[in-house]
Amino acid sequence: MRVSGKVLMGHHNTNYVLPLGIGLALLLGTVPFARGKLRVPLGAVEVVPRIWPREADVLRVVSRHLREVPRCLADFGDRSLHAYRKGRTLSDENPDGDVDEGLMRLFAEFFARTARVPVAELPPRPDGWPGDGDSEGFLHWLVDFTETRVHRANRERFGSLFDDVLIPEDAMAAFERSHTGLTSRPFRLLHTDVHRANVVMRKGRPIVIDWELAIYGDPLHELATHLVRMGYGKQERDRMTALWAEAMQRAGHGELTAGLDDDLPVYVAFEYAQSVFPDVMRAALGLPEQPDDEEFREAGRRICVAIGLAREPLQLMDVPDLDCTVKALRKWHDRNVAARTLDGASG
Predict the structure, then answer these.
(1) Contacts of 317 (CB under 8 A, 6+ apart)
(2) DSSP secondary structure letter of residue 4
(3) What is the CATH code of the structural domain delimited by 87-347?
(4) Does 193 have pLDDT greater than 80?
C-alpha cells in the first residue's frame, strides 16, 4: 500500500497525514474533507511494554470519555487510520523550556479525567497481570519486562556494548531487590508516555495523542514517566506533583495519592534505570555506516548522560568517561559492520 502526505516520525510509528475525500469521510463517519492520520508501525527494537496490541481497542474506550482525544476511524490490523487534530505539538512550541503553571494544571486535570475512565470498559489484560492495587507486583512486572524483553533479549547484539560501558549484568535484579514495600493503590488506565511530542496544543489546551503504550496499573507510574520525559526542572517537578495530587483529591480519587512521598521517587528511579538500555541501543543504532569522530562523540555523550542518570537507581559503582564510551562504540560499530559484510558475502 503506497501512501503520500505529510510525514510525522515517532519512536514507534510513521504517521502520514492524509486528506479524506468526501466519500471516504462519510463512510468513516467523519467530516468531509477532514484529514486523517495513518499510523504505520516501525520495525523498531522493543523497549517499552505494550499490553494491548491494538491501539484502536484502547482509543475506542478513551475517546468516549476524553472527547478531545482523536478517535480511530479504521483499524487495518498492522496499521490504523485516526482522526487528525490540527495544531502544533508542545515539542515544536517549547522543545525544552520551562512549562508554565497553567499548562501544568491542565496536565493534572487530564490525569484526573483519565483516572475516571471505567476500568470495566478496558480491553482484557494479559494473563498473569498484577491484581488491582498490587503496586509492588506492578513495579516488579515492569522490572521483569525490562530485564527479559529489553536487556536479555538484546544481549546477543548489544551485550558487549553494555559490558564495555560498565552496565552490570545484574543491574535490574539489584534494583528490584532494593525497592520493596510499596503502598497499595487502586489501578487505573495509564497513558505512560505523556511528553512534549505527544501533546498537541490547540487553542491553549493540550490534546494527548498516541495511546499505543497505554497500560493498566499504578497511577504513580504515570506521574513518574510524565515528570521525567517532560524534562521538568526540580521546582517544576515539585509543583507538578502537588498539582497532580490536588487534582486527584478534587476529582474524588484521593486513594490514588496514598504513599505518594515514599513511592513516587521509586517510580522515577525506575524510569531512569530502565531507560539506560534503550538509550544505549538507540545511540549505537543511530550511527551512520561510516561515522566521523564527532558522530561517535555525540553518540557517546548521549550514553554518558543516560548512564549518569541511572547511576544512583542502578547503584553503579563505576561509570565510563566519554573517551571510554566512544571506544566502546567504535568497537561495537566495527564488529557490526564486519558482521554485515560477512552476511552479505555468504548470501
Answers:
(1) none
(2) -
(3) 3.90.1200.10
(4) yes
Element (H, E) at 7: strand 6-9
DSSP 110-123: HHHHHTTS-GGGSP
Note the Cα 228 to chain centre separation in Å: 10
Q: Which residue has the cell 475517546?
A: 63
**Cell numbers 477532514 label which residue?**
34
Q: Which 3 state secondary structure label does DSSP give 36?
A: strand
* Cβ 223 vs Cβ 241: under 8 Å: yes
Alpha-carbon 300 to chain mean position: 22
CA distance 210 to 194: 9
Q: Which amino acid is at 298?
A: E
Higher per-residue confidence, 180 vs 29: 180
Question: Quick one: which of 253, 130, 133 has its CA closest to 183?
Answer: 133
Q: Quick check: 5 pLDDT over 70?
A: no
In the chain, the amino acid numbered 276 is: V
Determine the Cα–Cα distance for residues 294 and 107; give it in Å rounded to an integer: 38
